[in-house]
Amino acid sequence: MPRIENDIKLDFKDVLLRPKRSTLKSRSEVDLMRSFTFRNSKGSYRGIPIIAANMDTVGTFEMAVALSQNKPCNAIWKVSEW
């Protein structure tokens, strides 16, 4: 049976991101690294929570190697040759 959700949904046009004052002197001082502990496995991840797109031109092993130098994730394209 389908579930009907009645709570409010927001889209990008519904939300305004406002700049905020910061104590940082430069954008190079920003730290994007985050730590996550997974609820069910208790495994942990420390890195930048950005995942490259799972497309044939982006989700490649070469892109995974390039991204691994900066700690984001890469979703390998599902028909890649392992």
From TrEMBL:
GO terms, molecular function: GMP reductase activity
Domain of life: Eukaryota
Annotated InterPro entries: Aldolase_TIM, GMP_reductase, IMP_DH_GMPRt
Keywords from the named record: NADP, Oxidoreductase
Keyword Cytoplasm part of the UniProt annotation: no
EC code(s) of this entry: 1.7.1.7
EC class of the enzyme, as a word: oxidoreductase
Name by which UniProt lists this protein: GMP reductase
Natural source organism: Oreochromis niloticus
Gene giving rise to this polypeptide: GMPR2
